[in-house]
Amino acid sequence: MESREPLAAARRGQLPMPRATPGFGTDQTDPGQAMTDKVTAERKAAGDLGEIGKLIGRTAPSPLGRLRLSRPGMNPISCAREDVRRCISRARFRASDRSTMRPGSHGGASGRPLRGCMRIEKKILICGAGIAGPACAYWLHKYGYSVVVVEKAQTFRDGGQNVDIKGAGQQVIKMMGLAEAIEAKDTLERGQKYLDAAGAVIAVFPKGAVGTLTSDFEILRGDFARVLFEATKGDCEYRFGTSVTNLDDSGAGMSVTFDDGRAEDFELVICGEGMSSSTRAKVLAQETRFRYLGAYMAFFKIPRRPEDDNWAYSVNGVGGTFITLRPGNEKETTVLITFLRKDHDIEGDNSAARRDLLLKALKGRGTVADRITAELDMVQDFYFGPMSQVRASAWSKGRFVLIGDAAYCPTPFTGAGTALALVGAYVLAGEIARGESYAEAFAAYERLVRPYVEASQDQLSPRFIRLLHAKTWFGISVTHLAQKFFSSGGVQKVLRPSAAKREKGVAEDFVFPQY
């Protein structure tokens, strides 16, 4: 009989007496007054069945009038019961929090939270203002949560390399309504050309070709982060020059101490600091391991020359060095260098050792390498590190959860890290919004996203990296033949999917839950 109660109540235009609603926190208001306020507000919210009809996709006041079967495989009666039950749950949520919500600060245009059990005054902390953090902040604010984003850098960082927004990441960008803003920052890269050591063109892979480095959305990391920052800075609080020194999960909330000595309580802490996250090490150090792929990588910018155009240029060098120049902006060209190294033995800030390794990898590798060597002393924004993946056995512990590269960096060499971050941000925020508890939300997030992450990470292995980094002149010659073969018109005609198939591939890259 209990399963029919919500449907019967909706037919009568009444609601049953309220029951305790599970949530992420506890209610400290007077129980008697809270019950009175809740009953009054619930009956007022439930009196207009037209509102319930809108929420569950019906145009008739009768709960069994015209149904929208949004869940395949569910019969109409079950669908109706579930939808009405959800509407009543939302009405209860609105009633319980009506006295504490700030006008105009909620996810919906009408000023009420979209769904879930956590009240609006409860705060979520996000560590890291790169890609994953602001993307998650966008969705959390949309669902009605108060978000604080802390970043250890003193100011917003505009630097960084080209990032590819592939597959499912493109869908998230469109759902966020940011496609136009990103296209305005596009590097206009036309495709990829492979060169020999003397600089002669070996093969050409235009944008859209099978095997090209160039994706539909090409944008500098800093420009993309700026788009996300601009989309969220008015709704979320950003604190630059701030890092976490201690986390205390008391069970009722997370007490966070920052480097300025200030302590603050949050409902949840989301860590999106990147693969070298110091905050992750405070909570999930034992659960996190790094998979070294047998190579080091460096990326930075050099001054743009008149001969630089909107193509990416790649060169295979003897000894297992791979060099790529890509369009940056009007004044800069971006550089990516990867080279084989058996041992993962360069740690910390040993800048002299890193520079020596890089110069050794460039020496005698041709005209492009000579140009980079000549410009190296003037480089300011410089990254050097192992080509490694982050593989965490668990993405959460208590009220703490990982996102983006901090949880599942696939290495920048894959070009998939941005898509993983965007998908993870969408799913984590959505599950927090609809979950009955944070534990349930975190478990669902990991269950949905982990297979997608592992499929992406498994595309690379140490053996595959060695294959891409030919070490001998003979190996490089064979690589050039393969590049010529796959870039030929006939082969591309066979391999290249139609526009319709490409769209289908993007749509099927990840099956998005609807929140």
TrEMBL record:
Q: Which SUPFAM superfamilies match?
A: FAD/NAD(P)-binding domain
Show where the FAD-binding domain sits. Answer: 123-454
- Gene3D superfamilies, A to Z: D-Amino Acid Oxidase, subunit A, domain 2, FAD/NAD(P)-binding domain
One example GO MF annotation: FAD binding
Q: Give the domain of life.
A: Bacteria
Q: Where is this region: Disordered?
A: 1-37
Q: What is the protein named?
A: FAD-binding protein
